[in-house]
Write a structure and sequence with these properties.
This protein has about 130 residues and is mainly alpha-helical. It contains 6 helices and no strands.
């Protein structure tokens, strides 16, 4: 989706950070349109309410539907605004679906299990945002 909305030359701030957005055109418009700058600032406030790092910490509970309605609404709002977190959520869904196809009685050799746990712990420590 483009940051320029279908109602004319105004910027759709909810899609400003999407990869498909023509940032040069959006920024040129923002330089001259106070109302669009104000709407984009509202998006920034909403993104600060639920930083990407917080969403990453909650994604499992979100997918398990173990979050309350208020928190689900905050997560849904962040996902509407953040293409990167939508991609992350899609990757998690695909990972869980793949893991769900592995028989529960599958035994991993100790060295494989240790290597997987090390990678997981390292990735958890590298979260920023």
């Amino acid at each position: 989706m483009s940051a320029l909305d279908g109602r004319g030359p105004h910027v759709d701030p909810e899609h400003y950070y999407d990869e498909a957005t023509d940032k040069a055109a959006a920024d040129a418009h923002l330089a001259t349109c106070k109302s669009c700058r104000e709407r984009l600032e509202e998006v920034h406030v909403r993104l600060r309410d639920m930083p990407c790092s917080e969403l990453v910490e909650l994604v499992t509970e979100y997918l398990d539907e173990a979050v309350d309605a208020r928190l689900r609404a905050r997560i849904d709002d962040h996902l509407r605004l953040c293409e990167g977190c939508r991609s992350y959520l899609d990757e998690m869904r695909a990972t869980l679906e793949t893991l769900g196809r592995i028989p529960r009685d599958t035994h991993l050799p100790d060295h494989v299990r240790a290597a997987l746990l090390a990678v997981f712990r390292e990735s958890r420590g590298g979260i920023t945002g």
